[in-house]
Amino acid sequence: MRLFDKPAHVLHDMLVKKEITAVALTQDVLDRIDEVDGEVKAYLTVTREDALAQAAAVDAKLARGESISFWEGIPGAIKDNICTKGIRTTCASKMLENFVPPYNATVMEKIAEVNPVILGKANMDEFAMGGSTENSAYFPTANPWQHDCVPGGSSGGSAAAVAAGTAVWALGSDTGGSIRQPASFCGVVGMKPTYGRVSRYGLVAFASSLDQIGPITRDVTDCAHLLNVIAGYDEKDSTSTKAEVPDFTKSLVQDVKGLKIGMPKEYFAKGLDPEVEKSVRAAIAQLESLGAEIVEISLPHTAYAISAYYLIAPAEASSNLARYDGVSYGERVDGIDIVDMMTKTRSEKFGEEVKRRIMIGSYALSAGYYDAYYLKALKVRTLVKQDFDQAFEKVDVIMSPAAPTPAYKIGEMASDPLKMYMQDVYTVPLNLAGLPGISVPCGFSSAGLPIGLQIIGKALAEDTLIRAAYTYEQSQQFHNKIAGLGGENA
Ligand code: GLN
Question: Which residue in 6, 41, 79, 349 is the catalytic one?
Fold first, then answer.
């Protein structure tokens, strides 16, 4: 019996009932990696031996008659911008090719407490800059559904691994859509929590006021369980929130009666692929038939969100990436003097997209342009947030597509960064406003590629998102499909 195609909650029950062992489960997922990762290329590093040793420890516990908690022995993958003690963390950059962190990110400390199996580190766009995982300095990842298509990005390795059955769960990071968009492209569940809900300590910084770590899972049940593990205040992250963390699994209830769903008219406008629109509208109608109420709303500053994001994110990135100078952090390329050394290091070790962002960011922050670009973008950010504040006076959640199209072909947008930036139209506004969002599978295009429904919530209302997403998921069966198997979950 193969095991890689099952969600964590099913596997946990099987472990508890002793129908399977943790070693058999981990071995099955490692076999799956051997079978498909040569083509999908979701992994930068596979920690095979450690994974089997972790699994054996769980089996020993079970053999002693001890009970195990939900995540024990369940294998998962970590995006390669999250620091893992003793495991290489490259950010998919040549700059960090040999970086082995001496410490764990706070999320990894929290994960370690619940004792899952860590399979390795997932591919991504270099420093999380991109939306297709083509910007990895090592290799692009393929969409498990169609290998000539991108998996989305920047957490493309994490989403592709979960979709291909080469990981049961994964962690990603989302600065402008990098969890939700690849989840949508790969037909899995991905959540960006509220800014501050999950500690960023040990997440290699891209744009600090926007970055957030979140779960990528096979279904909403696993998402709630994983969020329970990683959420919470951390004194090591001054931007983490002290808000109480509810038990998110309590929101796994099928009930949307009276839930007010806002549909922003600006999100169902020109540029939206007709098949995506059809699936998303059908999903929202499905929730209406289950008792939700649909309200048309307006988020009038939507059109400016991308421009603001592509000034603020690069501005913060240019500052965050200044530390890679060949001395304090990262690789070094020798030069005849210090300026030559730094120039060579940064020219050779950063990829094209990273350098583009550093240049845009430095320009936007420079004296004389600061007011015209950076300050203006901050003002737009406030307006985008006010749009949401006003909308949430009338509705409980907002629903939209996660991305304007299904996955596109590898190489299709690589030469046109602006076109690729437009892909983030429905995701970046949430990061600007700090709000939580989840992408749930809601259908397939005629070409057989997954489509994702995005549900947006008020700050700290992940519980409401989980309830709405779970209700929808249980009324449909799209999440029961595994890429490459083309059929129902066993
Ligand atoms: N696609 C967006 C960008 O390129 C989002 C990236 C992210 O969320 N990490 O910046």
Answer: 79
**Residues whose beta carbon lies within 6 Å of some atom of ligand 1:** 128-131, 154, 174-178, 206, 313, 424
* Burial 63-92, CB ≥16 within 10 A → b, else e: eeeeebebbbbbbbbbbbbbbbeebbbbbb
Percentage helix, strand, coil for the chain under 3-state DSSP, each rounded to 5: 40, 15, 45
Closest CA to 403 of 369, 454, 456: 454
DSSP type of residue 75? E
Report which residue type is found at 377: A
Q: How far apart are CA 56 and CA 449, in angstroms?
A: 37
- Give the distance from CA 48 to its chain's centroid: 23
3-state secondary structure 257-307: CCCEEEEEHHHCCCCCCHHHHHHHHHHHHHHHHCCCEEEEECCCCHHHHHH
* pLDDT tens, residue by residue, 410-421: 999 988 989 899
User: Rounded to an integer, what is the distance from CA 82 to the centroid of its chain?
Assistant: 12
Flag whether the pTM goes above 0.85.
yes
The separation between the first and the last C-alpha atoms of the chain, rounded to the nearest angstrom, is 9
DSSP state for residue 427 in the 8-state scheme: T
Q: What is the C-alpha to C-alpha distance for residues 147 and 242, in angstroms, rounded to an integer?
A: 43
What is the spatial distance between Cα 89 and Cα 102, in angstroms, rounded to a whole number? 11
CATH code for 8-301+382-480?
3.90.1300.10
For 170-179, the pLDDT digits (tens) are 999 999 999 9
Q: What is the pLDDT of residue 476?
A: 87
Q: What is the DSSP string of 182-202?
A: HHHHHTSEEEEPPTTTB--TT
SS3 356: helix
Q: How far is CA 149 from the centre of its chain?
A: 18
Q: What is the pLDDT of residue 484?
A: 61
| Residues 6 or more apart whose Cβ sits within 8 Å of residue 390 | none
Q: Distance, CA 37 to ligand 1 centroid (Å)?
A: 24
Q: Which amino acid is at 18?
A: K
Return the best residue to mutate from 129, 312, 354 for the ligand 1 pocket (most ligand atoms within 8 A of CB).
129
The yes-or-no answer on residue 94 being catalytic is no
Mean pLDDT of 300-314: 97
Condensed to tens digits (0 to 9), the pLDDT of residues 322-340 reads: 999 999 999 999 999 999 9
CA distance 40 to 77: 14
* Cis previous bond, 154, omega within 30: yes
* DSSP secondary structure code for residue 435 in this structure: -
> Does residue 79 have an active-site annotation?
yes
In sequence order, the β-bridge partners of residue 171 are: 78, 215
Give the Cα separation of 166 and 158 in Å (integer).
Answer: 10
Q: Is 215 left (phi over 0), alpha (psi -120 to 50) or beta?
A: beta
